[in-house]
Specification:
Mean pLDDT: 96
Number of domains: 2
Low-confidence stretches: none
Strand content: 25-35%
Bound molecules: uridine-diphosphate-N-acetylglucosamine
Distance between the termini: 6 Å
CATH superfamily of the largest domain: Enolpyruvate transferase domain
CATH topology of the largest domain: UDP-n-acetylglucosamine1-carboxyvinyl-transferase, Chain
Helix content: 25-40%
Number of strands: 24
């Protein structure tokens, strides 16, 4: 296993290019299963998670090749309908193959997912939605077995809370269903919009993109499509916060500032200078970070996937900050590690109360999930001395060439074998 060594307390300067969004690429890749043929997806990040879903597609019989950031996937040869535990256990988003397989083949067997240990993270919405559409589901030996007798039927589906992959799975199942499906309280994350665009390019009939009410008129058949993955808003946000915590100034290119409404507003309130253009963001930290409060919410609220990183910024602010997590019940695992670096944080229920200090101190820390790992990198960049982060395979699930990008910003960082 690799560890990351960071010599911190160096201001960041420079320009980096943001990669395509992991959380958009995964459903786009899964959507190629909906119809046989050659599909092309541009701007796909080369990450552990995208490799996992490609390995999963391969195990189903699909063939793919990568040229630069473009993927070509042939789903004509799909002949196996079982997503095995070995592939699904490492990545929760593997459940995204369930909707398209059931829609195209009328049958699927998918292992129950694993992934980040950040809460119970059930898939009941996915399963209830498919059942409402007429699929017969049973759970057996850790697998979901799904069958459709004749065809999936349109249905009215309401989510108690907006689920991102739940919305994506039901969307993919509904495009080929007979009749109209309405998804109420649908997730409005930009990654869902990216999938809607791909499905429409494939011939689907969908109204309500970017709203919480999606109306899908089932069509008889679809065709392969050529689409582009949106930029990664969480990667963008992580580097913005890193400059805030370490100081300096940077320009992030190939990103979409419109996808980060809550973060840019909060960073300005924290005293950072943020200048947005159509596809780039400039960030600088002119003075001490001001303390602010945040609460994670579904999009367009503050993303839970940036909570840990923002908390690091608050550890070096000038006052008290309250950070409330409302999406996942167990998402403060970075707190114990940040405390090892000198941070003053107290947890009270689903809130963390952070008292800003002058500077963090380098320490040996351990990453426990993807975004927690990113927060430890941000902390290491800001801290005085050397920080050693173990188990960085989590980072490799979601950040393309993080070491290269940080070095381009002047950070002293390298990987070592543990
Ligand atoms: C996706 C993102 C993840 C992000 C999360 C919230 C991907 C691949 N992952 O995860 O990075 O942190 O959205 O923005 O896109 N829930 C249920 N039952 C379900 C499904 C969800 O109760 O069947 C609950 C969850 O426990 C959670 C909330 O709904 O409290 C939102 O979760 P959800 O949006 O489904 O997260 P993911 O799609 O797994």
């Amino acid at each position: 296993m690799d560890k990351l060594i960071i010599e911190g307390a160096r201001k960041l300067h420079g320009e980096i290019r943001i990669s395509g969004a992991k959380n958009a690429a995964l459903p786009l890749i899964a959507a190629t299963l909906l119809t046989p043929g050659w599909h092309v997806i541009h701007n796909v990040p080369d990450l552990r998670d995208t490799r996992t879903i490609l390995a999963l597609l391969e195990s189903l019989g699909a063939v793919w090749k990568r040229k630069g950031d473009a993927l070509t996937i042939n789903t004509e040869t799909v002949n196996n309908l079982e997503a095995s535990y070995d592939l699904v256990k490492t990545m929760r988003a593997s459940i995204l193959v369930l909707g398209p397989l059931v829609a195209r083949m009328g049958k699927a067997r998918v292992s129950l997912p694993g992934g980040c240990a950040i809460g119970a993270r059930p898939i009941d919405f996915h399963l209830q939605g498919l059942t409402k559409m007429g699929a017969r589901l049973d759970l057996e030996d850790g697998y979901v077995n799904a069958f459709v007798d004749n065809y999936l039927s349109g249905a009215h589906i309401y989510f108690d809370v907006p689920s991102v992959t739940g919305t994506e799975n039901i969307l993919m199942a509904s495009v080929l269903a007979k009749g109209i499906t309405v998804i109420k309280n649908a997730a409005r994350e930009p990654e869902v919009g990216n999938l809607v665009d791909m499905l429409i390019a494939m011939g689907a009939d969908i109204e309500g993109k970017d709203t919480d009410r999606l109306i899908i008129h089932g069509v008889k058949s679809l065709k392969p499509a050529e689409v582009t993955t949106i930029p990664d808003r969480i990667e963008t946000g992580t580097y913005l916060v890193a400059v805030g915590a370490a100081g300096g100034e940077a320009t992030l290119t190939n990103c979409n500032p419109n996808h980060l409404p809550a973060l840019t507003e909060k960073l300005r309130a924290a005293g950072l200078i943020i200048k947005e253009s159509e596809s780039s963001i400039f960030v600088s930290r002119p003075s001490k970070v001001q303390s602010i409060d945040i609460k994670t919410l579904p999009y367009p609220g503050f993303p839970t996937d940036l909570q840990a990183q923002l908390m690091v910024l608050m550890t070096v602010s000038n006052g008290l900050s309250v950070i409330t997590e409302t999406i996942f019940e167990n998402r403060f695992m970075h707190v114990a590690e940040l405390k090892r670096m000198g941070a003053e944080i107290r947890i009270n229920g689903n809130s963390a109360i952070v008292k800003g200090i002058k500077q963090l101190k380098g320490a040996q820390v351990m990453a426990t999930d993807l975004r927690a790992s990113a927060s430890l990198v941000v902390a290491g960049l800001a801290a005085k001395g050397v920080t050693e982060i173990s188990r960085i395979y989590h980072l490799e699930r979601g950040y393309e060439d993080m070491v290269g990008k940080l070095r381009a910003l002047g950070a002293r960082v390298h990987k070592e074998k543990e």
